[in-house]
User: What shape does this take?
Amino acid sequence: MLGSAVPAFIITALVSGTNGVRDLARRSFKWRVPFRWYLISLLAPPLILLLAVTALYGLAPIRALGQNWPLIFTAFLPALAIMIILNNVAEEIGWTGFTFARLQDRHDPMRAALLTTIFFWLFHVPSFYVETRSWLTTAVALAIFLLPHLGSRIIVGWLYNSAGASVLIAGLFHAMHNAIVNSAGLVSVVALPQFEVLVIMAVLSLLRPQSLPSPPEAASGSNGPQDQHMRVDLPHRKYWRPI
Assistant: This one.
């Protein structure tokens, strides 16, 4: 969703100049991270969902998965690819690489996730209204998804910091979540109503980390006035020791 990424780069350019843009781009496409973070962001959500729906519905979803397995390759994986390439990685440049990263420089990571949730939550108002054409239904939907949005922002912040400030890892998790709940995604494979899967994923997102790790230390330490200037212009580069 370039609507989030483009403003992030424009504002960064205005505030921090070329160095800031390069830093944001570096974090946005940082792929050299421990492999476990790819596994967690891409495999953990569907596996946890399958465990949850099995506990709730018995073996019926698993049987549907066995019968509809071709849809994994014709529906689910294409939906995931579209989310990754055209949507959620770019979206997280704005929400995580810019908003969350800068907020956590001024506040602790958990408070930064709480503040990011407010903007992320309000960002969905137009889409909810377009889908429902009812302000009442939009208000109900916003109320239902406030806590799940908070949970997802905390999980995304946890992934971002734990993976060494990788927006890519955060975007992969977001893409997998959306591919699961998309009507052409995993919903069609396990043959469950889309709304029920959406609610289940929303509840699961509340099973979030109780605390967030601090951002990783910068690769290079402070080496004089130039670095001190960079710490002012690029507030997200002021890091705490990892915990």
Summary: Confidence is low (pLDDT under 50) at residues 218-243. The CA atoms of residues 55 and 218 lie 43 Å apart. The chain has one domain: 2-216.
